Amino acid sequence: MTLTTTTPAADALVIIGGDAAGMSAASKVRRVQPNRQIIVFEKSHYTSYSACGIPYYISGTVKTSEELIARSPEEFRTVYNIDVRTMHRVLSVDTDNKRVKVLDKEKGTEFWQQYGQLLIATGGKPYCPEHITGHDAANVFGVSTLKTGIKIENFIRDTKPKTAVILGGGYIGLEMAEALLIRGLNVCLVNRGEQVMNTMDPDMGTLISEAMRNLGVTLYLEEELTELENADNKVTAVITNKRRIEADMVVFGMGTSPNTYFLEGSKIELGVKNAIKTNAHMQTNIPDVWAAGDCTETLNLVSKHPMHIALGTLANKTGLVAGSNIAGEAITFPGAVGTAVCKICSYEVARTGLQEKDLIRLGIEYVTASTSSKTRARYYPGAKKITVKLLAEKNSGRLLGGQIIGEEGAAKRIDVLATAITHNLTLQNIIDLDLSYAPPFSPVWDPVQTAARKLVKDI
Amino acid sequence: MTLTTTTPAADALVIIGGDAAGMSAASKVRRVQPNRQIIVFEKSHYTSYSACGIPYYISGTVKTSEELIARSPEEFRTVYNIDVRTMHRVLSVDTDNKRVKVLDKEKGTEFWQQYGQLLIATGGKPYCPEHITGHDAANVFGVSTLKTGIKIENFIRDTKPKTAVILGGGYIGLEMAEALLIRGLNVCLVNRGEQVMNTMDPDMGTLISEAMRNLGVTLYLEEELTELENADNKVTAVITNKRRIEADMVVFGMGTSPNTYFLEGSKIELGVKNAIKTNAHMQTNIPDVWAAGDCTETLNLVSKHPMHIALGTLANKTGLVAGSNIAGEAITFPGAVGTAVCKICSYEVARTGLQEKDLIRLGIEYVTASTSSKTRARYYPGAKKITVKLLAEKNSGRLLGGQIIGEEGAAKRIDVLATAITHNLTLQNIIDLDLSYAPPFSPVWDPVQTAARKLVKDI
């Protein structure tokens, strides 16, 4: 079959993916270049929604899925003159001929689209154990796109499940545990590691596991999915290497990988976990091809190694940088230190920088200590427990990592540590910081400084 | 009269003032030097209490005055072997003969106390318009020591006042307004400037004035106290240059000055507002004499000029540094950037660095912008308004100041700006920071980054 080829203006910008990274870039280009042709292919019905908000929609904390949408395709078309084509999936990229092959999902037809410049912003996809029968049953869910979020919400509303098994104890797994607890389900969480949240050190992970149990989640640690008992497109139980757990629904929270499978044979260079390699301008190795968001590698500013992190902040930033450069402004994305934060009911968890296993792997000599203090003056009502763990380079005292677990008011303190790590501050620098204090906000020594005071003695 | 002279061990440490700075130093010296003689003269009955907590005790948020006390004189004596002498006021310092003249307030006797080393940590005292008759009436209060806090609480409990006039719209004035509102009083606040909180720029001050009015405080701006109508040791009305305001009680919140009047003739060098000049080790110009806390100057790290700030954080830090050096450890206090935070009912106010009037006075060319955004993802319940104002050096983009007004979750974000200012970060550095994001904690771009993005365009 010979496909039709759509030839746009020579400098047309084609963007694959209409969420955070893609639409940040599109909006930036539009601001700088009011007349440029911008075409966006988005495989779903939705643009610019908050994927991070999906668990809160499922929990009912956010009432409608529409609230998660920052800007609709219609708004992009009419207000911004951006040619957003929803329900269009890009099947492959032909960089030699500067064109992409597109499937119009509604019409069922395929065509070639020429581009002047191309931005790939296809995001990530949740890991799904496709070798296990039942992985695609009607009551088994990944959590990634708004569409999957709506599917889960509809399933809960319509079938009123009583028990859920979550597979995987990362951010998504924990946030989904919160959501399903709020919806009144009995929640079991199966985790391969000895503690949930493996982006935290095991001692901090233990505290999170305890917190999850306090909330009523049944944790099965050091267990692995082996089988899904299923019949008639419905899973009835999760089988692990240790037990059988009955389930009305199953949620995968086993991490995400970059959505780059369609780039096979495109000559676009991939790196860690098949994420797209870019330079600091978000350019790939192929001229006129850019990439941004969860489908790309990110430079870890502490280890100096590339990593793959799927995070809304990075998607927005790299989208903006890609858009700026595509529009002729030369700004750069320096990389990240791996800051992340998560709320699970009344608990707050945050981390930044490297963790012990990273430091051991990199052969960096380090010291570490953790301290527990309060989020407010000890006598001020609502003062909550906060535990801060710091990791610092052995001789220099340079901060390398920080982890926080606590209740209300704890987590956002990670930002001072992220700033400190990015700019090579030492523990003494942190102690010397003039941080804000009043009894409703902090003890006199902020908890991050109390932790630094303890650890500095070991330097 | 010939006074008796008490001669202690040759290396005895005498500390004047038993609150944050003095007792931080004493505790530090005790940890390093278990056998050293340490004598503390404290003019009140109390040691180591949170002066910052007094408004919350008056409001009833903190139930008892005891809760504000971290460690009692008795505990210092018995557990730490620190010879704390309460109700002892130091009247003068004779540096030539290394001795201080002390009044035993209970016995009414005076004596000379020799010292090996001396630490002055006498704090600040609230400004009181002593030229105005009635300033010392029974229903007129300053807010500084725990004793004055207890006096106010007793007065409210016993006389059930209905109306209060607060003179001065700084932190203490605003926190006392909150406290008295909570206690059910009608509160008027008289402020000399055109907006309250003159440590913020007038445009931000306007927002605070609005917030105060929303809370039910009657504000009289650009007005000055001229007279206190009084009879029988009781003020009945405050007279300003514009009106007469009836009052059951009057509170002074007109700032504090260093408590150094007793150093006249001591040869100890004073600086800004008669605060004691020290080096970074907290040594004064006189050998073996140290100073710490609210009675000292602080180096402003942005202007490079000395300033006077009375803040619990600085008192604790400089006390610790003085104690370390007195005990033979050579650590330094680098200075501060003027970070402060304040809660007034549901409103949060924070500031750091220089403000416009400082920059104009210093002749520094600057750009400034403010933005309003939300404390959480816009769709997440409890997302509150936050306004961030940034000031940056004109050509370099180096951050010079930050001011925040908002509701729950707003103020503590000042810490990232304080860290940025201390380490000479630019607006672009702030945009590039990997700050934490999840919908319950922040929009994708943290409000401080949104402000930096707006202002960077003007560089």
UniProtKB/TrEMBL annotation, chains A, B:
Presence of the UniProt keyword Secreted in the record: no
Domain Pyridine nucleotide-disulphide oxidoreductase dimerisation: 340-444
Keywords: FAD, Flavoprotein, Oxidoreductase, Redox-active center
One MF annotation (Gene Ontology) recorded for this entry: oxidoreductase activity
Keyword Flavoprotein: yes
Necessary cofactors: FAD
SUPFAM superfamilies named among the record's database cross-references: FAD/NAD(P)-binding domain, FAD/NAD-linked reductases, dimerisation (C-terminal) domain
Ranges for domain FAD/NAD(P)-binding: 13-302
Coiled-coil regions listed: none
UniProt cross-references to InterPro entries, sorted A to Z: FAD-bd_OxRdtase, FAD/NAD-bd_sf, FAD/NAD-binding_dom, FAD/NAD-linked_Rdtase_dimer_sf, Pyr_nucl-diS_OxRdtase_dimer
Stored Pfam families: Pyr_redox_2, Pyr_redox_dim
Family: Belongs to the class-III pyridine nucleotide-disulfide oxidoreductase family.
Protein name (record): Flavoprotein oxidoreductase
Natural source organism: Flavobacterium zepuense
